[in-house]
Design a protein that fits this description.
- Its cofactor is dipyrromethane.
- Belongs to the HMBS family.
- InterPro entries: HemC (IPR000860), Porphobilin_deaminase_cofac_BS (IPR022419), Porphobilin_deaminase_N (IPR022417), Porphobilinogen_deaminase_C (IPR022418), Porphobilinogen_deaminase_C_sf (IPR036803).
- The protein is of the alpha/beta class.
- It is 34% helix and 23% strand.
- The strands form three sheets. Strands 1, 2, 3, 4, 5 and 11 form a six-stranded mixed sheet that branches. It has a five-stranded mixed sheet with strand order 8-7-9-6-10, with helices on both faces.
- The radius of gyration is 21 Å and the shape is globular.
Length: 362
């Protein structure tokens, strides 16, 4: 057994079983996401009791400021990680895109689950039913708090205007429907689908319109790095293609030193044992941009031998994926770094520095 004060309960028949406490944010979407992960764990470990512990994070409390202005990397994760550190919870479920590419010492992402649709979606004000972004009236206001979405869409749809909108999914939809401030808002398709609100999606934005955020659409399980048994327990949830895509994306972002406060976007495909990673950086208004695609082979030859050798002490951009080929993970990291270097050699640093300065001055 790993170290740490574990919690046990005894049932009516005197059987003792371990309790695993799972930390989550309080929002409805976070709860749905956490419940879906716990359901999977229960199926795989019917003898373990899972207890969900919900808490509010800084990002949930500061609702009147654009995320990119707060400048805090661990906005939605810090309180959850504090609970993990104090042994108040044993694992935490996050949206992977909320997790910085460098985690605090002592933590690791032990599982990245199969990715939901990673693209962004357009949700229209009821009066615009049936329209698309290109058919909205001139100067229509689109709500998004993401610099990445705004930069790409300003360039693609110059007739539209973009304004910040904050709050969880429920709050944003309410702001859209009950006021006349916005003609449409842009949200991640994954969240809308998990909430059962697919009927509100009027358009899915493909990569030609808007590439997505690093890790978007994937759920991650964060654990204490020293808890070998918990790492082992959650590792069964790893989806190999998603793990490799997200490792490549996170390595790309980390190499560019990007974060919430700069517009960096990706688009990844895994097919025929190849990972294709497209990465881009943008100025705030989208007028200046760099975009490139690279690929790497993640062939599964010798995978059985390699699987035995995955070292739980090795993190790749914050991820410890025990059940995924180590060679493939290394190839994914290299892909992200190589693509980052290619963009840096073409002037990405300058674009991002200006974007960061302009955003700070807003």
């Amino acid at each position: 057994m790993a170290d740490g004060p574990y919690k046990y309960i005894r049932d009516g028949d005197g059987r003792v079983s371990r309790v695993i406490r799972v930390g989550t944010r309080k929002s409805q979407l976070a709860r749905i996401q956490t419940d879906s992960v716990v359901e999977k764990l229960k199926e795989l470990h019917p003898d373990v009791n899972f207890e969900i512990v919900a808490m509010s994070t800084t990002g949930d409390k500061i609702l009147d400021t654009a995320l990119s202005k707060i400048g805090e990397k661990s906005l939605f994760t810090k309180e959850l990680e504090n609970a993990l550190e104090k042994n108040e919870v044993d694992l935490v479920v996050h949206s992977l895109k909320d997790l910085p590419t460098v985690l605090p010492v002592g933590f690791t992402i032990g599982a990245v689950l199969k990715r939901e649709n990673p693209h962004d979606a357009v949700v229209l004000h009821p009066k615009n039913k049936g329209k698309r972004l290109d058919s909205l009236a001139n100067k229509s206001v689109i709500g998004t708090s993401s610099l990445r979405r705004a930069a790409q869409l300003k360039k693609r749809f110059p007739h539209l205007e973009f304004k910040d909108i904050r709050g969880n999914l429920n709050t944003r939809l309410k702001k859209l429907d009950e006021k006349d401030d916005f003609s449409a808002i842009i949200l991640a398709a994954a969240g809308l689908r998990r909430m059962g609100w697919e009927n509100r999606i009027s358009q899915i934005l493909g990569p030609e319109d808007c590439m997505y955020a690093v890790g978007q659409g994937a759920l991650a399980v964060e654990v204490r790095a020293r808890d070998r048994d918990i790492l082992e327990m959650v590792s069964i949830l790893n989806d190999s293609d998603t793990v490799l895509s997200c490792i490549a994306e996170r390595a790309f972002l980390r190499h560019l030193e990007g974060g919430c406060s700069v517009p960096v976007a990706v688009y990844t495909e895994v097919k025929n044992s190849q990972v294709y990673l497209t990465g881009a950086v943008y100025s705030l208004d989208g007028s200046d941009s760099l975009k490139e695609t690279m690929q790497t082979s993640i062939s599964s030859d010798n995978q059985t031998e390699e699987q035995e050798k995955v070292d739980e002490k090795v993190q790749r951009v914050g991820i410890t994926a025990l059940k995924v080929s180590e060679a493939a993970q290394d190839a994914a990291v290299k892909l992200g770094v190589d693509l980052g270097n290619l963009l840096l050699s073409k002037g990405a640093k300058e674009i991002l520095t200006v974007a960061r300065q302009l955003n700070d001055a807003r």
